[in-house]
Amino acid sequence: MNIKGLRAFRNVVAQGSAAAAAESMHLSQPAISRLISGLEAELRLTLFHRTRQRLLLTEEGAAFYREAGRILDNLDEVPRIVAEIRAERVERLRIVCMPRIAPTIVSPAVSRMAADHPKVRISLDVRTRRDLERWIAGREYDIGVGALPVSHPQIESRPLFRAAAQVVLPAGHPLAEREALSAKDLKGERIVTLMRGLLLRQQVDEFFRSAGIEAAYAIETASSQLACQLVADGAGLTIADSLTTSVVESSRIVLRPLEPRRWTSFGLLIPGKAGPAEYTDRFVETLNRTVAAMLRPGSIEAVDPAVEPQNRRQP
Description:
Blueprint: H1 3-15, H2 18-25, H3 29-43, E1 48-50, E2 55-57, H4 59-73, H5 78-86, E3 92-97, H6 102-116, E4 121-126, H7 129-137, E5 143-147, E6 155-170, E7 190-194, H8 199-210, E8 216-221, H9 224-232, E9 238-241, H10 242-245, E10 253-257, E11 263-271, H11 278-294, E12 300-302
Parallel strand pairs: 3-4, 3-5, 7-8
Antiparallel strand pairs: 1-2, 5-11, 6-9, 6-10, 6-11, 6-12
């Protein structure tokens, strides 16, 4: 693939015009246009709408940028990576995790890892659950932390813990008087939920569907933390796991367990055919210590690897 065309595409998106991209790349504007046209022909996609004044992303172009954005942004890292390999001093650890466990579990573990191993260059990325398997299987990361189970045959998963689902209510809500809440209790309530395609949204949909209840979804968002904040601000109720709710200001919300109880399991995702795993193993040890310090019966619990669904790497 034409790397220079990819750079031109990235710069047009980032700079907002072909003229600005041409200046940043020390090329003429016609040269940028030729690079973009060549890339479109190679990809068989129309990346931009042409107007008299500027290039505007098409839906195809926006989708391509979303999917390939990280790769495009890392193009400038290639010379540095090559230099480090030649100098035989590459000590890198690439980690990816789901947004809802990043601040509570992964961030403390990464901070300890960085303090214990200052020579290791650590990168921490956040991806939605639907993207996690694809990026791990593609060896873009050394290790991932996300919800289980996984379905990809080239990923090994190891359970770490499970978190209970809870109803998040604004302080003073009448339902806060109950010890636990069922789907029927929530019938007719304004529900703040995640967007379609996200794992927690699928779990919440199944919770209501299994009870024969049609939920009254009032607001959709891409963030569990934001859903909890919306509840604190009086927008309605939401369902979130006990990790997410632990970072919300407790004086403004009330938490009640679901009835029947629902759990989400989280664990490690490791790509198949992994190479040397020295720093990956050390990060796993640090992560296990972080999880152990957060366990709370009925809220965040350890899981038995012998019974928890998991995958093994395929030969």
